[in-house]
């Protein structure tokens, strides 16, 4: 029987925490990080014990946005409000380059939305 690798790096541990808080299922996270569902379940229990608020409804929100065609507008809005490329990419299951390509022309040609006057 093959043993699945465990989370060894701090980066993987941080990604695990973010993915749990974002509301991904144990199976999705285990597949993404190449670890066991038991490891993910244990960490989820620890986070709940720490009082961390876990978003369980974001999948429905993303489905609604996709069905109404508002994904692009939402990504642009989030970027202008200061959300990072990585955070947006995690929420919409995209890669950072795709998010960058959507948002690169939003503040007068600047790639990073640092000026809040565009709201």
Helix-strand layout with pairing:
Layout: H1 10-22, H2 26-33, H3 37-49, H4 58-68, H5 71-80, H6 85-92, H7 96-103
- Biggest β-sheet, characterized? none
Derived structural class = mainly alpha
Strand content: under 5%
Number of domains: 2
Describe this structure in words.
Helix 2 crosses helix 3 and helix 6 packs across helix 7 (96-103). The protein is mainly α and 119 residues long. The radius of gyration is 17 Å and the shape is globular. Helix content is 60%, strand content 0%.
Feature tags:
mainly alpha, 2 domains, 60% helix, single chain, 119 residues, 7 helices
Concise description?
This protein has 119 residues and is mainly alpha-helical. The chain has helices spanning 10-22, 26-33, 37-49, 58-68, 71-80, 85-92, 96-103.
